[in-house]
Amino acid sequence: MRGPQGPDPRAGTDAAPPAAPTPSPLPLTVLKLGGSVITNKDDNRFEVRTTALARLAAEIATARRDTPQRLLLVHGAGPFGHTMVTRYNIARGLTPPRGVEGFVRTHHAVQELNQAVLDAFRDAGLLGFPVQPSAVIQQQNRRITAFDLGLIRGLLQLDPEVIPILYGDMVLDHTLGASVVSGDAIVAHLAAALGATRVALGTDVDGIFAGDPKLDPAAQRFERVDRDNFDQVRRAVRGATTVDVTGGMEQKLLEIRARLAGIEVAIFNANRPGHVELALRGERVGTQICF
Ligand SMILES: Nc1ncnc2c1ncn2[C@@H]1O[C@H](COP(=O)(O)OP(=O)(O)OP(=O)(O)O)[C@@H](O)[C@H]1O
Ligand SMILES: [Mg+2]
Fold this sequence. Notes:
alpha/beta; eight-stranded mixed beta sheet; 11 helices; binds adenosine-5'-triphosphate; binds magnesium ion
């Protein structure tokens, strides 16, 4: 018991050691694997490209071994989202008679694709943890108005090995009943809110070109997009040649411009073996974008 004369003389021995300085967190990368990479989007078939997924998961595992970083993965939907939404005619709201059914079935379809991604991650020894977008995001008129980041922050703090995985989904919408949230919008929101160091968007073309390279194979690629050439680039980008209800390349660029000022973003071809690995190592791949 402490006497009236002053501090307990044993205090020095019992006192807790000075707290170690909290290590600064590892840099955070947000990586997107487009639906055009992990599904047969070109053929508009509900098929997971399991061989590509296995290669991509292995590249992520290899890159993370020698380039320590926290990683957050978002994947696109391909036909599992875009084609379902088109079939049920719910891109602009839950139109009767089958709108609600379409909302529910589309969510099931993208979850099925998400399970395939989780399986590939597990097989590569990665600790992917699914975060269901419809459980944490709400929208108004197809724009994100609420995004509960608690689970994602908690997973990233728990251990840098854990990789939260989100995906393009259908979520409740205060104006439209339910609406699509694209993987690109999720990437932009998360990278801005969590202070990502790097954003890498893997798709099925080598970056942003002066015309859709699938329609104009001679179109030149932009090495870099910034404020100086934005107007020129803006005129060159279109949606997609495939079924894409969230605006393809055009909307990707606009999401980046709206939310990711000051963050280095790469749009690159994840169908090229080794390019996801290079992107995670911070090497230049595809078109670099910074506003
Ligand atoms: N100027 C352009 N440069 C490059 N690609 C372009 C351009 N204009 C349009 N595109 C199209 O953008 C497509 C990529 O966007 P898309 O949204 O389809 O891919 P994704 O994000 O991988 O798929 P998902 O939306 O299913 O996740 C390319 O396949 C290409 O056809
Ligand atoms: Mg798209």
